[in-house]
Specification:
Elements lengths: L1 H16 L4 E11 L8 E5 L4 E3 L5 H9 L1 H6 L3 E6 L8 E9 L4 H12 L4 E7 L4 E2 L4 E5 L5 E3 L15 E7 L4 E5 L3 H12 L3 E6 L15 E4 L14 E5 L4 H10 L7 E4 L3 H14 L6 H4 L1 E2 L11 H16 L20 E4 L1
Parallel strand pairs: 11-12, 11-14, 12-13, 14-15, 15-16
Antiparallel strand pairs: 1-2, 1-5, 2-3, 4-5, 4-7, 6-8, 6-10, 8-9, 10-17
Length: 349
């Protein structure tokens, strides 16, 4: 959800530039089931423009109506939305609506947090009692121990009634996809990953420079040789796909990546190519730990009958998502229990 919150902050900054106020709506609790889970947010500006969504459409219209008083008074409020008869989901949403007016210091710390790939935490104080309440609201905390209210005029140290509840959400760094290669299929994979909210990096050859115009949605481009590829920023919230279409170059990159610890390392190409690549890699690294191969996936992607570059990109992104969410792909009709993956949040009564 980090990329969604990042989009809301960017939307707020754009609205502020033209003098528009904004409020933030957060689903903080749920009785039953719903299209989205607690922690999802949307932003509304005073001209009615909405960024993000908390459900399928009907909820957003009701939030827009309820937000009008927050624009006028600046006081936060709680609302509920019963979707059992309108959304087809047997659940009641509890939604906190509050003014979004962060300090410049909070914006600067947030940008640095995103850039440094650090986690952060959002804590929302709320009540299941519907209506206006000046005591409720949200606080964001960063790894430098700084805390900020979403509304700069709101006190952070005010004592809270024991009837209030706390929704705490730990937000991880944006998921990163590193694509090693610059052919047409790499550009398509970049676009697909960007649509998922992933931070995409493209690694290209210095002899064949590329620009951001070549890769819609790319975050950064690194024109480097395999031996000069910096792996220090690769973490377990990153995935890598080798797709240079050059066997020797893929092998050289694989050798550079032997000390990296991504969540996923995909190899483009058929099974025979993967076996040859890994055999040559092991010949050059006979003492490599077996754990390295646990993160290697090749041929890259899920077996969904993909043929076109767009379909192959979908196949690759789907496999990466299944790996990082620790799910075994299957039709939802064959899954028992809830369909939603566990989200990282703590709810304190």
């Amino acid at each position: 959800m980090t990329h969604e919150f990042k989009s809301l902050i960017e939307g707020y900054l754009s609205a502020k530039e033209i003098g528009l106020q904004a409020v933030l709506a957060t689903v903080v609790d749920l009785d039953g089931s719903s299209y989205r889970r607690p922690g999802v947010r949307m932003m509304i500006t005073e001209n009615g423009h909405m960024t993000g969504a908390v459900s399928g459409g009907c909820v957003e219209k009701e939030i827009l109506k309820q937000a009008s008083s927050v624009f006028i008074t600046g006081n936060a409020k709680m609302m509920t939305y019963d979707g059992r008869y309108r959304l087809g989901c047997e659940g009641v949403l509890y939604i906190l609506i509050e003014k979004l007016s962060p300090t410049p210091e909070m914006i600067n710390d947030f940008k640095k947090c995103i850039q440094d790939r650090k986690p952060f935490q959002i804590e929302s104080i709320y009540s299941n009692k519907i209506g206006v309440n000046s005591e409720i609201g949200s606080v964001i905390s960063f790894s430098n121990n700084k805390k900020y209210s979403f509304c700069e005029s709101k006190e952070l140290t005010k004592e809270r009634n024991t009837n209030y509840k706390t929704f705490t959400q730990v937000m991880s760094p944006c998921f990163r996809l590193i694509i090693v290669g610059a052919e047409h299929d790499a550009a398509q994979l970049c676009l697909s990953a960007n649509n998922l909210g992933w931070e995409v990096q493209i690694v290209t050859s210095p002899s064949d420079p590329q620009t951001k115009e070549d890769f819609p949605g790319v975050h950064t481009i690194h024109p480097v040789n395999p031996e000069d590829f910096n792996i220090s920023q690769i973490d377990n919230n990153s995935a890598i796909v080798l797709m240079t279409h050059n066997y020797a170059k893929d092998l050289r990159f694989l050798l550079t990546l032997k000390e990296a610890q991504p969540a996923y390392l995909g190899l483009l190409g058929p099974l025979k190519r993967r076996e040859k690549l890994l055999n040559d890699f092991m010949d050059l690294n006979p003492l490599i730990d077996d754990s390295f191969f646990d993160m290697v996936y090749g041929p890259v992607g899920l077996n969904i009958g993909a043929e076109t570059p767009q379909e192959i990109s979908l196949s690759i992104c789907s496999e990466i998502l299944a790996v990082i969410r620790k799910e075994e792909p299957k039709p939802l009709k064959d899954k028992t229990g809830t369909i939603h993956h566990h989200v990282s949040f703590l709810k304190n009564e």
